[in-house]
């Protein structure tokens, strides 16, 4: 009986539960990728700055880092075909990125998808992430040699911009996507049948007492 009431309550009152929602990044500022065996540029960046030249400052646009494309292989397989690739690669110990949402957002999390090629070509995992006003997050080397991701809890972080610094563990840092989620307090739709169950609760309780 208790289980029945708990289930009904969970359905009915679940309408007010918060859930995560993807955050639209209006723009991000970053240094363009570098050149190695191939060009690891932010190929689709649409803001100011020359994204056809290495290490140029890019401002006010979006590109490979927020286009929804997550690389499913390491840099060597993903970047070797002719033409643009899914990764942006930097030959430096760290890279700074500022993300702009256009308005204050109550954030829930940030996820970074990157290449962990175990040192192949100097590409390895991200060992730390600095988030301005929140601190530093440290990461161990994931098992295996493949693309990987890390997620940072941003609950309670409410702002219109987020500044991060990614620290590599080898000369190259390769990132394919960065995604933010917000705490969306909008009501979660509940099937109409849930409200039809509500009047039955007193009847169930009376039947339980008689038993």
Element layout with pairings:
Blueprint: H1 2-13, E1 19-22, E2 27-31, E3 57-61, H2 75-79, E4 88-91, E5 94-116, E6 126-131, E7 135-138, E8 146-168, E9 172-184, H3 192-197, H4 200-210
Antiparallel strand pairs: 1-9, 2-3, 2-5, 4-9, 5-8, 5-9, 6-7, 6-8
Mean pLDDT, all residues = 85
Number of strands: 9
Beta-strand portion reads 35-45%
Shape: globular
Q: What is the count of helical runs?
A: 4
Number of domains: 2
Order of helices and strands: HEEEHEEEEEEHH
Helix content: 10-25%
Radius of gyration: 23 Å
| CATH fold descriptor of the largest domain | Jelly Rolls
Q: Helix/strand/pairing class, anyone?
A: alpha+beta
Unreliable stretches, pLDDT < 50, 5 or more residues? 1-17, 192-198, 200-211
| CATH architect. name of the largest domain | Sandwich
Major beta sheet summary: 9 strands, antiparallel
Q: Identify the quaternary structure here.
A: single chain
Q: Distance N terminus to C terminus?
A: 11 Å
Broad CATH class of the largest domain: Mainly Beta
